[in-house]
Design goal:
One of its GO terms (molecular function) is nuclease activity. One of its GO terms (cellular component) is excinuclease repair complex. By secondary structure, this protein is α+β, with helices and mostly antiparallel strands. The protein has nine helices and ten strands. The strands form three sheets. It has a four-stranded antiparallel beta sheet. Strands 2-1-3 form a three-stranded antiparallel beta sheet. It has a three-stranded antiparallel beta sheet with strand order 5-4-6. The termini are far apart. The relative contact order is 0.11.
């Protein structure tokens, strides 16, 4: 007789509309900011989120049956208004790393990143400390582990018919065509159909969408958002200030360098849509 197999499934918490929490957010305005769900602890939130419309976002939480477990444990909700969306994104990312709320799975701090580095020897997957973001040149992509970086390189190779052998993904005898060339998935740099220089040029062009931008200013800058100033140094957020004088006094990196700050700040800083003031 075949034994029966049982698969564990997480307990489904029944959804009950949280009337008390609805009353708690009656006075929350439709502004941009960060919000906090608290349980029994007054200092450690259960969940941290952000929105360009706090009131609308919080109401959507209360109507979501998938969040029944969070809502059941929540005793009250607080919020903090920010000067704009950039400030909300930065504050949310920083506080999640600092406080590690139970229901936040993303934006946790990653101690070791990996990247694709291009030099005279070719392409390789290398480890990258948080502090190297903004200082290192010729690096492409920020990945949370070596496997993700290698998979990204494979995807580039498949899309552009690049050779796994020359990319170091697999070993092939020198001068011999790789197996993918027979399948017409490799342009033939492994067997002389195209030169290694042409192959590297194709690779470099394909990598441009992943290029990690070096910090283009000599030091700290202030990015103006609304009536506030975000102080940034090599993609690390040092904090928010009300005046330029206060901004100049911000020199310590409280939240540290991390992949999320880079992703949040890179596009707006290079877009030309915000006032940027170099700080002495």
């Amino acid at each position: 007789m075949r034994a029966k197999s049982y698969h564990w499934q997480p307990e489904k918490v029944p959804f009950i509309y949280p009337v008390a929490l609805r009353e708690n957010i009656e006075s929350v305005p439709s502004v941009t900011g960060v919000y906090f769900f608290y349980g029994e602890s007054d200092t450690m939130p259960l969940y941290i989120g952000k929105s360009v419309n706090l009131r609308s976002r919080l109401l959507s939480h209360l109507r979501n049956p998938d969040e029944a477990k969070l809502l059941r444990q929540t005793r009250y909700i607080r919020y903090q208004q920010t000067s704009g969306e950039i400030g909300a994104l930065l504050l949310e990312a920083q506080l999640i790393k600092q406080l590690k709320p139970l229901f936040n799975k993303k934006l946790r701090r990653v101690r070791q990143l990996h990247t694709l580095k291009m030099d005279e020897a070719g392409i390789s997957v290398v480890s990258l400390s948080q502090q190297e973001i903004g200082y290192s040149e010729n690096i492409y992509g920020l990945f949370k582990n070596r496997y993700s970086a290698q998979e990204a390189l494979k995807e580039i190779a498949d899309r552009h018919q690049l050779c796994y052998g020359l990319l170091g993904i697999e070993k092939i005898p020198a001068g011999r065509a790789c197996f993918r060339h027979a399948l017409r998935k490799c342009s033939g740099a492994c067997c002389g159909v195209i030169t290694a220089e042409a192959h590297n040029a194709q690779l470099l062009e394909a990598l441009q969408t992943l290029k990690v931008v070096c910090w283009p200013w000599p030091g700290r800058i202030a990015l103006q958002e609304g009536d506030k100033y975000h102080v940034i140094d090599h993609w690390a957020w040092l904090g928010e200030a009300d005046t330029l004088e206060q901004a100049k006094a911000l020199t310590q990196i409280s939240g540290g360098y991390d992949i999320d700050s880079y992703k949040i700040l890179c596009k707006p800083l290079l877009s030309g849509n915000y006032g940027i003031i170099p700080l002495a």
